[in-house]
Amino acid sequence: MTDQPMLRVRHRGPTPQQIRTRRIVTVAIVVVVAALIVGAIFLFAPKGGTPVAEPSETPTPSSTPTPTPTPTPTFPLDQFDIDSAASLQVVVNKLRPLNPQDYAPADLVALNIIGGGQLRAEAAAKMQELLAAHTAETGLEMQSLSTYRSYSRQVDVYNGWVAQLGQEGADLTSARPGHSEHQTGLAMDLGAVPSQCNLDQCFATTAQGQWLAANAYRFGFIIRYPEGYTPITGYEYEPWHVRYVGVPLATEMHDTGVMTLEEMFGLPAAPTYAG
User: Fold this and answer.
1) pTM for the complete prediction?
2) What are the DSSP E strand ranges found in the chain?
3) In whole angstroms, what separates CA 175 from the centre of its chain?
4) Got the DSSP string for 145-187?
5) For residue 2, how many other CB atoms are within 10 A of its CB?
6) Percent of the chain predicted with pLDDT > 90
7) What contacts 205, CB < 8 A, 6 or more positions away?
8) I need a labelling partner for 266 at 20 to 30 A (CA). Which of 51, 68, 173, 233 fits?
9) Which candidate, 188, 213, 217, places its Cα nearest to that of 203?
10) How far is CA 73 from CA 81, 89, 220, in A?
11) Are 107 and 186 within 8 A, CB to CB?
């Protein structure tokens, strides 16, 4: 404790003038703050009643290829006969058998190419042109792996696949007799020379497979069973299997981006057999 006595100081309250001054200052501050708030509201509010857009969700793309819609063709498709077995544009699949089912072309000719085989006359001539152009443009060669197959031959081929894979597996790989494009004499399986990825999906990555995919339409051929279209064609991707449909139709499909005959002609998908 200190020995000195404490000095007490008496404080007086604020004067009336000081109280009035403090009130004026407080009111002024409140007015300024309110003005700032109102100004901010008018500054940042949407003008003219325009609603503020909600953020949109970007859909996650599907990894499954989307089938192309039936196009608007640049020429009438009804000029093509897709029903008669002898037509160059006949559509044969698991729901559309040949009529008659044991149909055999009358104008088969031998191919003068590596691997040989037979195709119908017009398709054979265009295949000879295709292979000659391929060699001239790339310096490479392709060979025939399978061409025309008769109904009886298709019976043996299909039964062989059934024995190896079972019926379900065989139906993804080979056509049942009477439903085969090879029986039309318009389809052909091509392979690289020397053999590389023949009758395998990796054929698409070879120089021969890439040229074929890009140029087959020039000679009237299409890749009949494209990648990702099994729900429509009923068959696995076969980059080696080409089908002759004629230059006008093949070019139309190429230019419009339509991948299958089913889509081109507005036909039902044929993933399985009717019975």
Assistant:
1) 0.74
2) 108-110, 118-120, 141-146, 187-193, 221-223, 241-244
3) 23
4) EE----HHHHHHHHHHHHHHHHHHHHHHHSPPTTS-SGGGT-E
5) 5
6) 71
7) 197
8) 173
9) 213
10) 16, 16, 17
11) no
